[in-house]
Predict the 3D structure of the following.
Amino acid sequence: MTQEVNVKQTITLLRRLQESDLEIEQLNHKIASIPRKKDVLNRGLQQYIQMVEQEENRLADSRKERRQLEHSLEDHNLKDARYADQLMQVKTNKEYRALLTEIEQLKAKIREIEDKILDLMEESEELEKSIRWRKKKLEKKKQEVEAECHRLEKEEEALNHQLETKEAFKSELQDKLPLELLEQYNRIKSVRHGIALAEAKDGFCQVCHVRLRPQVYYDLRANKSILLCDNCHRFLFLREDEVVDPTKLM
Ligand SMILES: [Zn+2]
C-alpha cells in the first residue's frame, strides 16, 4: 500500500468516524428527549386530574354547606311554628307587636337561608355537569396519553437499536485507525465542540474560515500526509472531486 493510498484511506476512516459520532450524538439526543416528552404528557394529564379533583372537592363542600343550611332551616321552621303558638297566647298588645317583629325577622332569615340553599343547589348542578363532562374528557385524554407514551416507547426502542448498530460500526472504524491518531481525533473533538474534521475548499478551512497556506493546500491535494488546519487544528480533508493528481498541480 502506498503512503498516498494509506493517507487517503485514513482520512476516509476519520470522516466516517466523525459522521458516526455526530449520528450517535443525534441519536442520544433523541433518546434523551423521550422521557421528557413522556413527562410533559403525564404532567398534563395530572393537571387535568387535579382539576377534576378540585371540582369534586368544591362539590363536596357545596353539598355539606347545603346540608348544614337545611338543618338550620328545619330549626328556624320549628321556631316559627312555636312563635305561631305563642302568638295565640299573648295577653298584651305590646307583647303581640314584639312577637310579630321577631316573627318577621325570623321569616326574613328563613327566606335568606332558602335563597342560599337554592344558590348552592344550582352550583352543585353546574359542578356535577362539569365533572361528568371533564371525566368523559379525562378518559379520552388518558387513552391518548397512553397511546402516545406507547408510541414513544416503540420509538425509543427503535432508536436504541439504531444506536447499537451505529456504536458497532463506530467501534469497527476505531479498530481500523492507529491508536495515536484515534487519541488525537478524540482530543481535537473534545476541545472543538465535537467537530474534529474540517473540509478544505477553495483554499479555506470550511469550519474556521481561515485561508490555508498554499503549501498545506498543496500537500493536502497530494495526499502526502494527514494535515491539520493551522488555525483551528482540525484534521483537514478534501471532497473526492477536489483530490487531483498532484503531478497535474506542478
Ligand atoms: Zn480551521
Observations:
- The two ends are 24 Å apart (CA to CA).
- Residues 198, 205, 207-208, 210, 229, 231-232, 234 surround zinc ion (CB under 6 Å).
- DSSP finds four helices and three strands in the chain.
